[in-house]
């Protein structure tokens, strides 16, 4: 079925599955420890894939491989079926995959104005042509801010991150990513550092950007509610491996025993229940579910 991760064709080089972004058999080792262990995921054009799992599962490491920030010990990353260099990507390849981090306070330079934060990538990547006039850049910055639901105050471009709330700063970080017109947004726990009351607004924004801009999302989270709000595909990670993956509607609407209380515990229970209930819609880490499933998930 199309939602299961396609098998890698043996010795076939650049064969594609139609996915926009694919990670194949990625392994990342820190010392002798495999933080990510032979993981494959595929993100469709305009799709939203949620990678969910407990803390330490390897989610951020996987996100960084996708964005080209760290090189895996093994495995390949493909964009439009073409293999990307692990880290020394071309400028154009870097432009197409943008990342948003958990904490806007550490990802936005506090001494830079919003204009500078938003314009930097556009100027580097030439999104507005080689030498865009200042008013063209400003107009583009204002459109970006409107796109992420920020105000129209006259002085907004001259302000610095400190003048905004945490949720607004995360919107600015998202606007900065959008500034270079990426195809893929990799968002690593984009709402985890925010007040519960503003989390929903950021998730709604991601849903809207996907719909309106055709942006594909690779959304990393420990929170199943976040996946449920935004994603149409789910991959559950544990101990560096994918233990279950498939369509979100099956994942969330399969009979779910134990889906209450602590979401992290629930994630494991849900992964197991969904995998059991929906097989073969849910692949189970490539392993025989009946023999290995319980051992892997609990
Ligand atoms: N730079 C690093 N050096 C050594 N170990 C790391 C490093 N980054 C992450 N790890 C370890 O790799 C594992 C996965 O980490 P991470 O990808 O951050 O997980 P998650 O995002 O799911 O919480 C954890 O055990 C973590 O301690
Ligand atoms: Mg993480």
Topology at a glance:
Blueprint lengths: L20 E10 L2 E11 L4 E6 L5 H8 L7 E6 L2 E2 L7 H6 E4 L3 H4 L6 H12 L8 H14 L18 H13 L5 E5 L7 H18 L2 E6 L2 H7 L2 E6 L2 E7 H6 L9 H16 L10 H9 L1
Parallel strand pairs: 3-8, 3-9, 6-7, 7-8
Antiparallel strand pairs: 1-2, 1-4, 4-5, 9-10
The chain binds adenosine-5'-diphosphate and magnesium ion.
Please describe the structure with a list of short key phrases separated by commas or semicolons.
alpha/beta, ABC transporter ATP-binding protein, ATP-binding, ATP hydrolysis activity, four-stranded antiparallel beta sheet, 38% helix, binds adenosine-5'-diphosphate, nucleotide-binding, 298 residues, Rossmann fold, 21% strand, six-stranded mixed beta sheet, ABC_transp_ATP-bind, disordered N terminus, 11 helices, binds magnesium ion, disordered C terminus
Could you characterize the architecture of this molecule?
With 298 residues, this protein is α/β, with parallel strands linked by helices. It has one domain (21-297): Rossmann fold. The chain has eleven helices and ten strands. The strands form two sheets. It has a six-stranded mixed β-sheet with strand order 6-7-8-3-9-10, with helices on both faces. A four-stranded antiparallel β-sheet has the order 2-1-4-5. β9 (233-238) and β10 form a beta hairpin. The structure holds adenosine-5'-diphosphate and magnesium ion. Adenosine-5'-diphosphate binds next to α1.
């Amino acid at each position: 079925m199309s939602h299961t991760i396609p098998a890698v064709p043996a010795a076939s080089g650049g064969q594609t599955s139609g996915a926009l972004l694919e990670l194949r058999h990625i392994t990342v080792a820190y010392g002798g420890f495999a933080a990510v262990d032979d993981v494959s995921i595929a993100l469709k054009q305009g799709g939203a894939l949620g990678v969910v799992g407990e803390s330490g599962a390897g989610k951020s490491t996987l996100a960084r491989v996708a964005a080209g920030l760290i090189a895996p010990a093994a495995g390949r990353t493909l964009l439009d079926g073409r293999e990307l260099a692990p880290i020394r990507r071309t400028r154009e390849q870097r432009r197409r995959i943008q990342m948003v981090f958990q904490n806007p306070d550490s990802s936005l330079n506090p001494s830079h104005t919003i204009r500078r934060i938003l314009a930097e990538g556009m100027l580097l990547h030439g999104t507005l042509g080689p030498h865009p006039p200042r008013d063209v850049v400003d107009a583009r910055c204002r459109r970006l801010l409107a796109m992420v639901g920020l105000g129209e105050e006259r002085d907004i471009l001259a302000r610095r991150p400190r003048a905004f709330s945490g949720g607004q700063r995360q919107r600015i970080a998202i606007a900065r990513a959008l500034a270079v017109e990426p195809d893929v947004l990799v968002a690593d726990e984009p709402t985890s550092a925010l007040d519960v009351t503003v989390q929903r607004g950021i998730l709604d924004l991601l849903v809207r950007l996907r719909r309106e801009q055709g942006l594909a999302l690779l959304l990393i989270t420990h929170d199943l509610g976040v996946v449920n709000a935004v994603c149409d595909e789910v991959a559950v990670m544990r101990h560096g491996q994918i233990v279950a993956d498939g369509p979100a509607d099956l994942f969330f609407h399969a009979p779910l025993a134990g889906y209450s209380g602590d979401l992290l515990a629930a994630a494991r229970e849900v992964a197991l229940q969904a995998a059991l209930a929906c097989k073969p819609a849910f692949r189970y880490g490539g392993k025989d579910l009946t023999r290995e499933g319980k051992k892997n998930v609990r």
